[in-house]
């Protein structure tokens, strides 16, 4: 190790000949084909957007389109990324810069906030493609191609071996982290890390200004890519690489002028990149400054023993997005083999890859004391298991090094080349299988289809009004894809916003940033529903609530209903009017049940309720709803239920899920009796206040309209307490998302409120004169009035221009210093291995 570290310098190393552009072009073309093959999508007929998840929810049952569900963990693309991207794209195509997004939680900073990826390369690809579904596919492909090409150059600059570089590029681009987080900004940020490292290394090797500027651009794009914690991991990788090559140079040549100039030059280039990204990062800081992050804590879900999953066991066990990190079985074997080669033939870049692996073990796999890990900036409120990204980078470097050691540059031993080609083929097949386990490729026509309820609401809703949707429409925020603002959309929330949301739906949170709830969870008597101008509520038909449900322990499937009807007793302890009954079924991974089903409810031998549902209404491991033709009044007492298949002779089985233990209860299938009770709910419609009405636009879904919300803005006589919101005297005159005008026709003192989320950059004028902008509920913008007037609310973007001017000045100063430092530094000859 010491000998090699002394003799190997990354600067001024004479090489054989100038690299061949044609060879690089062939390598890149091969890598391009491998990426397309691993993803395996036909962009003309398919899309990579996770519409399989969208269409698995009842809100889209009447869209007339079906798609097999591949993965449940793709909701963020549907309730966060795509709603923002679609709004930015619409605004840009209409000729406006989307500095304010009215759809995100009733209003948020627009494209300039890097957290929404609007300043990223994949969004640019998406925005420029005429067909949205195709554009999203190209955006995902762009990320993988960026990751692959960047990793290729990094591996080539390290080992001068194109075959090894192609293999390492595949490994990094499709490592488990990047496959699992395909629809998050995690991948958008991760894809740029190899470019940061490659340009950093190449500048150190050559001293060329072009590579320093490449480092600047890569740093800026990585910082703007949308996920700061992954960008931090890129920064840590860059720092580690810098320390390794600097240490080798010091041992090899000692301190010299070229080394000092290039080290300072890299610093200037990095600072220049930071200045380019600073306006977007400051917008993110403004969002986080109004958010309570104390609930987020650092930590990892892994133990050191979980490293065995590097062989792909995570895929066979479906451990999920947060636990997936395998980079493929061939890559794992070559990574371990690299430890042997490092011992026999030390290499500084292989040592760098080993250091990345050690850092990953210390953090992601919990090998280091937690108190020490928390000293790293931002690790106290981010999941450490996401550091497994660096395992992918480490595996790429170490596996490339193994191939470089196995495969001589001149290919003197042909059998070794054949072995390596076989390994590459196995690796691409492994990665393609892994990609398909996580990412669906539904037909292109599945891209956000319209439904009768969505079309109905779109035809009636006005600017400033909002909607709430229950769990029938996936996580809250999914309907924002249709330009329907949702108060509960995915994202960080201010304390004032949390109070409003909690008053409307007390149990809305399923995570720190996401919401999902039932229609029956909504507090329809909340004043905040009116204050937030929630005009429509979309949910399951009738907006029902479970009045009776079985409770027990140890769930298991019943015997197949093919052998006989499922029947047993239910004890109802209070009277109510039943709308439907819901039963949890298992279809054994079939799309639907093999037969239609009937449910009969008896009281003292007399039939009191009957319902039949088609096979399509029964899905695997989901509740099937038996809707009664009319509400059924049930009194307290014992009822007999009978659930039957209309075609029990079907070759495919169907079971219900049951609690194994329910206080001595039993159920019967055919002639056999079993302990326990099926998982059953009986529900009734909830009562609505008089100002709400229900429109049944399509089967299974109800659209509830709030008639108290009749306009776009309203008048209140005070900013405290619970004043009455009067929409009558306020009329919307002009509207743009970031600039709108309302006319107030009232004659009394009070405040005019426009129900959007505001921040410190919103301003107001009254009859053309600037006035102070107040806040109602510490959330909505309000202007004090004493009589009729014209009120303008607008988003003041002048702070962006000032910040941009300052950052451009800092960028220019850094680049000028970089040019001065680069000067006429001698360039070493470069070549190929």
Please explain how this structure is put together.
The chain has four domains: 2-39 and 112-438, no CATH class; 452-543, no CATH class; 545-685, Jelly Rolls; 714-795, Immunoglobulin-like, CATH 2.60.40. 39% of the residues lie in helices and 19% in strands. It is built from 23 helices and 28 strands. Strands 5, 6, 8, 11, 13, 16 and 17 form a seven-stranded antiparallel sheet that branches. Strand 9 (597-603) and strand 10 form a beta hairpin. Helix 11 (209-223) runs parallel beside helix 13 (257-289). It is globular, with a radius of gyration of 31 Å. Residues 1-8, 12-18 and 825-833 have low confidence and may be disordered. Keywords: Membrane, Transmembrane, Transmembrane helix. The chain crosses the membrane at residues 21-41, 133-156, 163-184, 219-248, 260-282, 325-343, 350-372, 384-403, 415-435.
Number of helix segments? 23
Estimate nothing, just give the exact number of structural domains: 4
Q: What would you call the shape?
A: globular
Residue-averaged pLDDT, rounded?
90
Alpha-beta content class: alpha+beta
Compact summary:
By secondary structure, this protein is an alpha+beta fold. Helices cover 39% and strands 19% of the residues. The protein contains 23 helices and 28 strands.
Properties at a glance:
Jelly Rolls; 23 helices; alpha+beta; 7-stranded antiparallel beta sheet; globular; single chain; 6-stranded antiparallel beta sheet; 4 domains; 833 residues
How is the topology of this model organized?
Elements: H1 2-7, H2 21-39, H3 51-54, H4 75-93, E1 100-101, E2 108-109, H5 121-128, H6 132-159, H7 162-173, H8 176-180, H9 185-190, H10 193-206, H11 209-223, H12 228-253, H13 257-289, H14 313-316, H15 329-344, H16 348-363, H17 370-373, H18 388-406, H19 414-438, H20 452-460, E3 466-469, H21 495-504, H22 527-531, E4 534-540, E5 544-549, E6 553-557, E7 566-572, E8 576-586, E9 597-603, E10 606-613, E11 622-634, E12 637-645, E13 655-661, E14 666-669, E15 672-675, E16 677-678, E17 680-685, E18 692-698, E19 701-706, E20 714-716, E21 730-736, E22 739-744, E23 750-753, E24 762-766, E25 769-771, E26 774-776, E27 780-785, E28 789-795, H23 798-822
Parallel strand pairs: 3-4
Antiparallel strand pairs: 1-2, 4-19, 5-17, 6-13, 7-12, 7-14, 8-11, 8-13, 8-17, 9-10, 9-12, 13-16, 14-15, 18-19, 20-23, 21-22, 22-28, 23-27, 24-25, 24-28, 26-27
């Amino acid at each position: 190790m010491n000998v090699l570290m002394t003799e190997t310098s990354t600067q001024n190393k004479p090489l054989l000949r100038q690299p061949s552009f044609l060879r690089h072009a062939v390598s890149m073309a091969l890598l391009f084909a491998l990426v397309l093959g691993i993803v395996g999508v036909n962009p003309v007929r398919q899309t990579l957007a996770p519409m399989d998840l969208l269409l698995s929810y009842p809100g889209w049952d009447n869209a007339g389109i079906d798609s097999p569900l591949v993965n449940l963990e793709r909701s963020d693309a549907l309730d966060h990324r795509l709603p923002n991207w679609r709004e930015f794209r619409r605004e840009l195509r209409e000729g406006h810069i989307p500095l304010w997004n009215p759809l995100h939680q009733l209003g948020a900073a627009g494209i300039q906030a890097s957290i929404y990826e609007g300043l990223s390369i994949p969004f640019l690809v998406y925005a420029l493609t005429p067909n949205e579904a195709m554009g999203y596919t190209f955006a995902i492909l762009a990320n993988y191609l960026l990751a692959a090409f960047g990793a290729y150059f990094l591996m080539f600059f390290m080992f001068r071996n194109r075959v090894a570089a192609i293999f390492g590029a595949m490994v990094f681009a499709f490592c488990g982290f990047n496959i699992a987080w395909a629809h998050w900004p995690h991948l958008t940020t991760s894809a740029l890390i190899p470019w940061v490292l490659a340009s950093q290394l190449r500048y150190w090797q050559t001293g060329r200004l072009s590579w320093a500027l490449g480092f600047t651009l890569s740093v800026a794009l990585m910082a703007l890519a949308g996920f700061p914690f992954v960008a931090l991991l890129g920064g840590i990788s860059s720092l580690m690489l810098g320390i390794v090559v600097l240490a080798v140079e010091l041992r090899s040549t000692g301190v010299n002028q070229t080394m000092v100039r290039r080290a300072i030059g890299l610093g200037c280039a990095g600072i220049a990149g930071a200045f380019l990204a600073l306006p977007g990062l400051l917008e993110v800081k403004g969002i986080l400054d109004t958010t309570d992050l104390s609930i987020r804590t650092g930590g990892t879900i892994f133990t050191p023993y979980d490293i065995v999953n590097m062989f792909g066991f995570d895929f066979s066990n479906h451990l999920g997005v947060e636990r997936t990190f395998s980079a493929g079985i061939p890559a794992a074997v070559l990574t371990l083999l690299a430890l042997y080669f490092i011992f026999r033939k030390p290499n500084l870049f292989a040592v760098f890859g080993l250091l990345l692996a050690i850092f990953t073990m210390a953090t992601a796999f919990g090998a280091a004391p937690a108190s020490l890990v928390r000293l790293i900036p931002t690790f106290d409120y981010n999941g450490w298991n996401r550091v497994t990204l660096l395992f992918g980078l480490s595996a790429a470097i170490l596996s490339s090094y193994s191939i470089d050691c196995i495969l001589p540059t001149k290919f003197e031993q042909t059998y070794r080349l054949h072995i390596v080609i076989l390994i590459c083929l196995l690796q691409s097949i492994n990665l393609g299988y892994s990609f398909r386990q996580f990412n669906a490729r539904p037909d292109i026509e599945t891209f956000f289809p319209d439904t009768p309820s969505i079309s109905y609401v779109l035809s009636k809703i006005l600017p400033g009004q909002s909607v709430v949707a229950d769990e029938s429409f996936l996580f809250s925020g999914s309907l924002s894809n249709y330009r329907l603002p949702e108060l509960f959309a995915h994202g960080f929330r201010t304390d004032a916003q949390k109070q409003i949301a909690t008053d409307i739906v007390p149990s809305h949170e399923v995570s720190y940033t996401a919401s999902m709830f039932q229609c029956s969870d909504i507090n329809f008597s909340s004043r905040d529903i009116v204050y937030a101008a929630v005009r429509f509520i979309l949910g399951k038909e009738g907006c029902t609530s479970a009045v009776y449900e079985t409770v027990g322990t140890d769930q298991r499937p019943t015997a197949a209903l093919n052998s006989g009807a499922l029947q047993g007793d239910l004890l109802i302890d209070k009277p109510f009017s039943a709308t439907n009954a819901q039963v949890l079924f298992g279809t054994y991974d079939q799309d639907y049940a093999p037969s239609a089903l009937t449910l009969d409810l008896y009281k003292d031998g007399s039939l009191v309720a009957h319902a039949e549902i088609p096979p399509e209404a029964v899905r695997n491991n989901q509740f099937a709803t038996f809707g009664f033709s009319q509400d059924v009044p049930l009194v307290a007492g014992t009822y007999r239920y009978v659930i039957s298949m209309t075609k029990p002779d079907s070759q495919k089985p169907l079971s219900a899920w049951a609690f194994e233990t329910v206080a001595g209860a039993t159920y019967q299938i055919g002639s056999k009796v079993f302990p326990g009770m099926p998982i059953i709910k009986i529900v009734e419609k909830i009562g609505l206040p008089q100002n709400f009405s229900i429109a049944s636009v399509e089967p299974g879904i109800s659209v509830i309209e709030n008639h108290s919300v009749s306009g776009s803005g309203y008048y209140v006589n005070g900013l405290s307490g619970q004043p009455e919101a009067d929409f009558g005297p306020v009329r919307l005159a002009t509207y743009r998302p970031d600039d709108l005008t309302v006319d107030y026709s009232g004659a009394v003192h009070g405040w005019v409120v426009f129900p959007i989320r505001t921040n410190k950059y919103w301003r107001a004028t009254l009859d053309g004169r600037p006035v102070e902008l107040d806040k109602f509920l510490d959330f909505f913008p309000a202007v004090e009035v004493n009589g009729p007037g014209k009120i303008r609310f607008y988003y003041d973007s002048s702070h962006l221009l000032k910040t941009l001017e300052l950052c451009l000045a800092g960028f220019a100063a850094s680049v000028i210093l970089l040019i001065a430092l680069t000067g006429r530094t001698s360039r070493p000859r470069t070549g190929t291995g």
